[in-house]
Design goal:
The protein is of the alpha+beta class. It has helices at residues 25-40, 128-141, 152-171; strands at residues 45-47, 57-60, 73-83, 87-94, 97-107, 109-115, 121-127. The two termini are 23 Å apart.
């Protein structure tokens, strides 16, 4: 089932998500719904708080090459356990902040630990777009948006645009 993506500003996007203590069928269904929602948006990552669920769950798939096999990842309780000193700057966007983009600098490589949908502990090193995406999504679990990395004026400008968009959408 496709879920509704919350739009900034929404207080739920600024809250810290709770750790997942027990992998239930309900949470696995949520992960499946999130993947469907992400692909349809279209996007390369989605965090549970973006669909109004304050649980530490993210999904991502950064395979963008035409004809390449998708690589959907479901991560419960993901955490960065190591990051490189080298940094990369990518133009980031967010499904909760549609049509707004800005350069964000983050570590170029990160080692991430998480629990997969079967309850198994996983660990992997990510680089390039994957590293940026996984860090962006983990930020959502801590109530942080990519615009929080921007200078106040740029952040306020984007927030004002989003308030206007939400008003227009509410009018239908």
């Amino acid at each position: 089932m496709k879920r509704t993506i919350l739009l900034h500003p929404d207080p739920r996007l600024k809250k810290t998500a709770q750790p997942v203590d027990d992998l239930s069928d309900e949470l696995r269904t949520l992960a499946d719904d999130m993947l469907k929602t992400m692909y349809e948006a279209p996007g390369i990552g989605l965090a549970a708080p973006q669909v109004g669920v304050l649980q530490r769950l993210i999904v991502l798939d950064c395979v963008k090459e035409e004809g390449a096999k998708p690589r959907p990842l479901v991560m419960f309780n993901p955490q960065v356990i190591a990051s490189s000193d080298t940094e990369n700057t990518y133009e980031e966007g967010c499904l909760s902040i549609p049509d707004q983009y800005a350069d964000v600098t983050r570590p170029a490589e990160v080692d991430v630990h998480w629990i997969d949908r079967d309850g198994n502990a996983q660990e992997e090193r990510f680089d390039g777009l994957w590293a940026t995406c996984v860090q962006h999504e983990i930020d959502h679990l801590d109530g942080k948006l990519f615009i929080d990395y921007l200078k106040p004026l740029k952040r306020q400008l984007i927030t004002r645009k989003m308030v206007k968009l939400k008003r227009e959408l509410a009018r239908g």
